[in-house]
Design brief:
Belongs to the prephenate/arogenate dehydrogenase family. It is an enzyme of class 1 (oxidoreductase). This protein is of the alpha/beta class. The protein has three domains: about 5-165, Rossmann fold; about 170-280, 6-phosphogluconate dehydrogenase C-terminal fold (Orthogonal Bundle), CATH 1.10.3660.10; about 295-360, Alpha-Beta Plaits, CATH 3.30.70. It is built from 13 helices and eleven strands. β4 (about 80-85), α4 and β5 (about 105-110) form a beta-alpha-beta unit. α3 packs across α4 (about 90-100), α6 (about 165-190) crosses α10 (about 230-250) and α10 runs antiparallel to α11 (about 255-280). The chain binds nicotinamide-adenine-dinucleotide and prephenic acid. Prephenic acid binds next to loops.
Amino acid sequence: MRTVAVVGTGLIGTSLALALVRRGLTVHLEDADPDAARTAASLGAGTTDPADGPVDLAVVAVPPALVGRVLADCQRRGLAHRYTDVASVKAGPRADVTALGCDTTHYIGSHPMAGRERTGPLAARADLFEGRPWVLTPTADTDTETLNAALEMVALCGAMPIVMDAGAHDRAVALVSHAPQLLSSLVAARLEHADETAVRLAGQGVRDVTRIAGSNPAMWVDILSANAGVVADILDELAADLGETVTALRALEAADEAGRRSGAAGIEAVLRRGNNGQARIPGKHGAPPTRYETVAVVLGDQPGELGRLFGEVGALGVNIEDVAIEHSTAQQVGFVQLSVAPSAVARLNTALREHGWSVRSV
Ligand SMILES: NC(=O)c1ccc[n+]([C@@H]2O[C@H](COP(=O)([O-])OP(=O)(O)OC[C@H]3O[C@@H](n4cnc5c(N)ncnc54)[C@H](O)[C@@H]3O)[C@@H](O)[C@H]2O)c1
Ligand SMILES: O=C(O)C(=O)C[C@]1(C(=O)O)C=C[C@@H](O)C=C1
């Protein structure tokens, strides 16, 4: 594969284009909003010049409800030999594609399981899909070359292909993406009118739980409209769990010891079930869940500090598996929490302290 067209240069389209340009492909960028395509091009994601003839693969990266119409238009123009999309739901767009009479032999649905709570080309990152699952939903119509082109795209992005039926995909993402989005929004919504003094105490826990509450409402209405029933079923089950949790908390307030014991047992059961579920989430590249340890470094809030820290950690040969930054509300400092392999912790603590960093125990 040498040439690709990306139609829709928002977060996902531009991230994909950046990844493919990095791998030496020629990428042609299009968007209904010319500013979005120009911005993507200025970030190095490809060219806004149209291709001379059909490209090898066109990727439709527009909101789910528009996939069918945009694909039909691309095929009418003969934009590519093969086509895919990246929408977060698969059955609805697939039904639209069929209803609009698109060529389904040269089209395969796809969905990268990576994203951000921000949209638009400026939020794009070339490494967004690195190590992430990327679902492909071929049907009996899909020809082998089209499946192979999609597999090549996924490999070029460093992602892991997972072939699934569209309906099974939609049921799975209801559990691991759509319901979590709504729960994050609901927790954050509790803060809307909360007392300012309470909100000022927000620490890393509530930040972690509410990160995706910053997502684009219009895009999520689109996604949830296409998967509403399955997500509602999951929320029904969650509502039952919530009811039991409330009962257990009320019992904890009871006057008698037996009531308090039963309440504590109920709450402990919820927390243990949470531990068990969380432990099942795979690590990077689908590896078994990995336990990392945190090294917390206090950083002056000034230009270049983060880069200097990352550079020194890299020079020590330690891989940063994840990073979280907590800003102090009171002082011009931040706490950078580096997740690293447990075996690297002692060495990293000592070396960073020797280099003058303030390392905290967590
Ligand atoms: N944001 C995420 O976390 C995420 C993750 C995986 C998949 N997706 C899916 O990727 C797709 C794009 O999402 P995004 O986050 O990049 O959104 P985005 O809002 O950043 O980008 C969408 C782009 O599509 C363009 N567009 C709209 N109508 C168009 C048309 N008719 N022709 C050409 N361009 C058109 C918009 O101008 C916009 O630039 C959606 O289907 C979404 O479900 C999103
Ligand atoms: O990390 C995030 O910000 C996301 O919400 C990404 C996320 C997800 O739920 O994992 C959101 C929707 C997409 O369809 C795929 C990925």
